[in-house]
Design goal:
It is built from one helix and eleven strands. By secondary structure, it is mainly β. The radius of gyration is 13 Å and the shape is globular.
């Protein structure tokens, strides 16, 4: 059974940091691209970052480039999102999802609507 479970969310002050984890099971990490998405209240879902574990290629949206870092630990079947210099506008539910390797990571993150498996999300709140 395929599962993606996010963890690590919470309340953090502006300028602070958090590390999110996406722990996967039921599939081999190298066989998929893994993306982080977020959805703020009243807003559409937004692609944040994506990684191809097979070759460690990464992609970031303009809104998080330079502040967030995506990485993976194949031995733990886990993908991480290290978030730094957090802003109130980063407040959202963060989801990880597994998608096909057939597309470029930018397309997968920003335009593709067919991610195959999704986690249930973890809430990140940036507030003083």
């Amino acid at each position: 059974q395929v599962q993606l479970v996010e963890s690590g969310g919470g309340l953090v002050q502006p300028g602070g940091s958090l590390r999110l984890s996406c722990t996967t099971s039921g599939f081999t990490l190298d066989d998929y691209a893994i993306g982080w998405f977020r959805q703020a209240p009243g807003k559409e879902r937004e692609g944040v970052s994506c990684i191809r574990p097979r070759d460690n290629s990464t992609y970031y949206s303009d809104s998080v480039k330079g502040r967030f870092t995506i990485s993976r630990d194949n031995a733990k079947s886990t993908v991480y999102l290290q978030m730094s210099v957090l802003k109130p506008e980063d407040t959202a539910v963060y989801y990880c999802a597994a998608g096909p390797l057939d597309y470029g990571l930018g397309y997968l993150l920003l335009y593709y609507n067919g991610m195959e498996y999704w986690g249930k999300g973890t809430l990140v709140t940036v507030s003083s």
